[in-house]
Amino acid sequence: MLDRSEVGKRGYLNEDYRLFHPKDTRALKLGYHYHEFDKLVFLLRGRTSYTIEGKRYLLRPMDVLLVSRNLIHLPVIDGSEPYDRMVLWVRREFLARYSTPEADLATCFDLTARRGFHLYRPRGEDRLRYRGYFEELEAAEKDGGFAAGVLADTCVLRLLVALNRDVLADSGRGEAGSYRFDPKMEEVTHYIRDHLAEDLTIDHLSRTFFLSRYYLMHRFKEVYGCTVHQYIRQKRLQKAAEDIRRGVPVLKAAEEAGFGDYSVFLRAFREAYGRSPREWK
């Protein structure tokens, strides 16, 4: 089946976690998207790359890709061979439930986001070890026997504990040739995320980075899979949503995220999250 997480701008997850095992035999044209939950992609077979916040990862079989919540990402699939992968969605609430002050299970996602490098490439026998984790979880989710839910939870936790240990021990830089990125566009996006409440028009950005309007718009779309305007709006919405969740008043959250018109913010928020800011809170 087609992984619905790779269709449209967002996916929804109402349970603690969900595992997919999609196998596609044709090239797919998928748009950029993001999620309120974290996601793992484990490639079994296929020629594909994955762009996360403008950085393009060139995947190999048995690679693990960690896609932290709210990061804009885009898979690019080559249809010359089947695209077979396992995808795990997991909610932060589930991670928090089993975390301790000394061991936060969200560390692997937060750390890769801070590093700006989202690929973990197992070596040697570890490649089969990770395949075993995913296959055990897949079997557990199909198990209808005694304490099947507990068994599936255990499989997810076993995978996450192993991944956290390995990501913490990894340098987080990756090997040469494992990814591509445009340093100038990365500068632009860092500036955007640091100045969401300020003027972020194309004219302002092009003057700030000494780029022509045409080059900035076209190169950004080429690298990120979305327009500059779409990227800015999404980052503003994400900031507002996080602030509202933390208890910041809705109007203040909208202003601090860069929305000068409250009615525009409300329409954009409903479109992105399927509910009003107050319902979200």
Structure description:
With 281 residues, the protein is an alpha+beta fold. 46% of the residues lie in helices and 16% in strands. It is built from eleven helices and ten strands. It has helices at residues 92-98, 107-115, 125-142, 148-169, 183-194, 202-208, 213-224, 228-245, 250-256, 262-273, 277-280; strands spanning 17-20, 23-24, 38-45, 47-52, 55-58, 64-67, 73-78, 83-90, 119-120, 179-180. The strands form two sheets. Strands 1, 2, 3, 6, 8 and 9 form a six-stranded antiparallel beta sheet that branches. A hairpin with a 2-residue loop joins strand 4 and strand 5. Helix 2 (107-115) packs parallel to helix 4 and helix 3 (125-142) packs antiparallel against helix 4 (148-169). The protein is globular, with a radius of gyration of 20 Å.
Concise synopsis of the structure shown:
The protein has 281 residues and is an alpha+beta fold. Helices cover 46% and strands 16% of the residues.
Attribute tags:
46% helix; disordered N terminus; alpha+beta; 281 residues; 4-stranded antiparallel beta sheet; 10 strands
The sequence of SSEs as H and E is EEEEEEEEHHEHHEHHHHHHH
The parts where pLDDT drops under 50 for at least 5 residues are: 1-10
Main pleated sheet: 6 strands, antiparallel
Q: Could you tell me the radius of gyration in angstroms?
A: 20 Å
